[in-house]
Structure formats: structure tokens, C-alpha cells
Amino acid sequence: MSSDNQWSADEDEGQLSRLIRKSRDSPFVPVGIAGFMAVVSYGLYTLKSRRDQKMSIHLIHMRVAAQGFVVGAVTLGVLYSMYKDHIRPRLFNVPKK
User: Which residues form the HIG1 domain (predicted)?
Assistant: First the structure.
């Protein structure tokens, strides 16, 4: 039986250390976050110079670009994980962790 008043290291972990730990496990997550922020920042920067384009169309284009960047980063992360777990051990006879 486990007690409710026991603590674990995960509860005392700060946000920055948690982000660093997660980025070691999945290295493309910070790439996706950075790309999303870059697309959103660029979209806000170009908001003034959209000329005769409607606001809703501009926002839809920026949303699609940001989502596309995140989906691309997740796809690359999955491919890297598949390579690391399945392809590299077969090609180079690397033992699994």
C-alpha cells in the first residue's frame, strides 16, 4: 500500500528542469515549440502590412502555418524515434537500452 503523504522527485521538479528532461526524451518538442512561436511572431509582425486581405483569412493562414510546423516537428520526432529504436540496432548491432 502506498501512502498519500509520501513525496516523489517529480512533484518537486521545476518547470525548467521538466522541460529540459522532456527535451532529452523527445528532442523535436522544443523545435516544434520554437517554430510555432516563430510563425506566430511573424504573423503578428505582418499583421499591419496585410494590405487588402481580410483579418480572418490572415489568421487562418497563420494558424495553418503554425500547425504545419508543429506537425512536421512531431513527424520528424517520430521518425527519429523509430530510427533510434528499430533501424539503428539492426544496422549497427547496437544493444537496446
Answer: 1-92
Q: What is the DSSP letter of 51?
A: T
Tell me the residue range of the domain where 91 lies: 53-96
- Spatial separation of the C-alpha atoms in residues 56 and 43, rounded to whole Å: 12
User: How far, in Å, CA of 29 to CA of 71, rounded?
Assistant: 10
Q: What is the pTM of this model?
A: 0.64
How far is CA 89 from its chain centroid? 25
- Please tell me the total count of domains within the chain: 2
Amino acid, res. 54: K
Q: How far is residue 6 CA from its own chain's centroid? A: 32
Residues 44 and 59 in one domain: no
Q: Are residues 44 and 1 part of one domain?
A: yes
Residue 37 CB neighbours (<10 A):
12
Domain final residue, candidates 17, 35, 52: 52
